[in-house]
Amino acid sequence: MQEELNQSRWNNSRRLYEEAVSLMPGGVSSPVRAIKPFPFYTSHARGSKIVDVDGNEYIDYCMAYGPLILGHGNDAVKKAIEGSIEKGWIYGTPIELEIEFARLITSIFSSINMVRFANTGSEATMTALRLARGFTGRDKIVKVEGSFHGAHDAVLVKAGSGATTHGIPNSAGIPADFVKNTLQVPYNDIEALSEVLEKNREEVATLILEPVMGNSSLILPEEGYLKEVRKITEENDVVLIFDEVITGFRLSLGGAQEYYGVEADLTTLGKIAGGGLPIGIVGGKREIMENLAPAGSVYHAGTFSGNPLSLSAGYATVKFLKENNVYPALASLTEAIGRGLADQIADSNIKADVEWIASMFCLYLGDKPSNYSEALKLDKDAFIKLFWKLLERGVFFPPSQYETCFVSTAHTQEDAEKTIEAVGECLKGL
Ligand SMILES: *Cc1c(COP(=O)(O)O)cnc(C)c1O
C-alpha cells in the first residue's frame, strides 16, 4: 500500500512526522493519530473542511473524534471563547458560569440532579467509577468488552479504539491485582450480564457501558437491550453508569438516555460538552453525587476543573443545540450518506456494510458487528487502504476501522454527494 501511495502530496507532513518520532513516542500525543506510514499535519480547519500543511483540503468526518457537532470554528462558540479570554482565563475560584452550565445540563438530562466538572472524559469515568465504588462499598466493576472509557487503569482491559487499532487492547503496566476487579461482558448479551452479576452477588459496584458503542467501530444496541440492562442492574443494586462522552448531545440533546428512554444512575459527558475544548463531566442522582468531596468522602479534585474557557465553549455549544433543533437535519443528512454508501457497497464486489444513527455512521469492511469479538473480524488493514484512497479524493474518515464517522451541522448535501462518490470509486479499487 505504501508503494501505491503518491507520498509527494504529503511532503510537509511526512517531514514533520520524521522529526516528531524522535521527540515523542510514536511521534504523537495520542496513539490513534499515528497513522501508518505517517499522519497528515493540520494547518487549519473551518466548517466541514480540514486543511493540511501541504494545502490538501478534506471533508472531515473525524471531527476531532466527536466534539465538533457544530463544525470547525463555529461562530457562536468562537465568540464565547473570545468573550471569556477577555476576562482572564483561570482563577482557582468558583465562577457563575458553573452554576448556569450545571442548570442547563440538569434541565436536559432528567437522570442528572448534580454535576462535577473535570477536564477529560477519562477523568470523568475514573471519578464515576470511584464514586460508584465509594457509594456501594464494593470493589468490583463490570465493563463491556471493546468499550472505551479513557486511558486509566481500571478500564484498560479489552479497551477498543486506539488500543485495538495498535494491537494492545490490554495495556502493560497495570497490576493484575488491580484489574482482577474489572469484569467483562460482551455487548448485547443480557444472559452473560445476568450470570456475572449472579456469580458476584453483592460484590459488583457498577456496570459502565457506552449505550451505543462508538470505539469498536459503531455498534448499536439490539431492541430492548438497554432497558433490560437497566432492569438487571436495578435488581442487583448495581450503579448503572452510561458513558455518554460520545453519545451525550449527539444521539439527541439528552443523549442515548433520551433517545432510548432509559435512565442511568451516573452519566459521564465530555467531547461535545466542551465545544472543542477539554472537558469531562460526571452527573447523576443527588444521593450518589453527594458522596463526592467535599460534600462526601470520595475524592476528586483538579486545578483546571471547571475552567472558564472550556465551560464557555461547552455552554455555548449546548445552549446552541438546545435553542436550535439541529437533530432532524443532522439525522437526515447522515441517513443520506448511509444510504448512498449502501448503494455503493451493493455496486461493488467488496464484502462491506454500513450503519448509521443520528449523526454517526460507520462503514464496515466485513459483516456488521453486534459486539467486540465480531468487530475484531473486520478487515482493519483494508480499511487503512481505504482511508488513504479517500484522503486522495478529499475525504477524511477517522484512520481506523474501530472509530466512528461524525457528521456536523457544517456538513452539506454537496459534501455528502462528494463523499458517496469518493467511497464508490475507492471500493472499486480496493
Ligand atoms: C473519548 C472517550 C472517552 C475519553 O475522553 P477523553 O476526553 O479523551 O479523556 C471516554 N469515553 C468514551 C465513550 C469516549 O469516546
Task: Describe it.
- The protein contains 15 helices and 14 strands.
- The protein is α/β, with parallel strands linked by helices.
- It has two domains: 7-69 and 326-429, Aspartate Aminotransferase, domain 1, CATH 3.90.1150; 75-323, Aspartate Aminotransferase, domain 2 (3-Layer(aba) Sandwich), CATH 3.40.640.10.
- The strands form three sheets. Strands 4-10-9-8-7-5-6 form a seven-stranded mixed β-sheet, sandwiched between helices. The chain has a four-stranded mixed β-sheet with strand order 1-2-3-13. A three-stranded antiparallel β-sheet has the order 11-12-14, with helices on one face.
- Bound molecules: pyridoxal-5'-phosphate (PLP).
Reconstruct the topology from this structure.
Layout: H1 11-20, E1 42-46, E2 49-52, E3 57-60, H2 75-85, H3 96-108, E4 114-118, H4 121-136, E5 140-144, H5 161-165, H6 176-179, E6 182-185, H7 190-199, E7 204-209, H8 225-235, E8 239-243, H9 255-260, E9 266-270, E10 280-284, H10 286-289, H11 308-323, H12 327-347, E11 353-357, E12 360-364, H13 372-375, H14 380-392, E13 395-396, E14 405-406, H15 413-429
Parallel strand pairs: 3-13, 5-6, 5-7, 7-8, 8-9
Antiparallel strand pairs: 1-2, 2-3, 4-10, 9-10, 11-12, 12-14
The chain binds pyridoxal-5'-phosphate.
Pyridoxal-5'-phosphate (PLP) binds at residues 120-122, 125, 148-150, 210, 214-215, 243, 245-246, 270, 280.
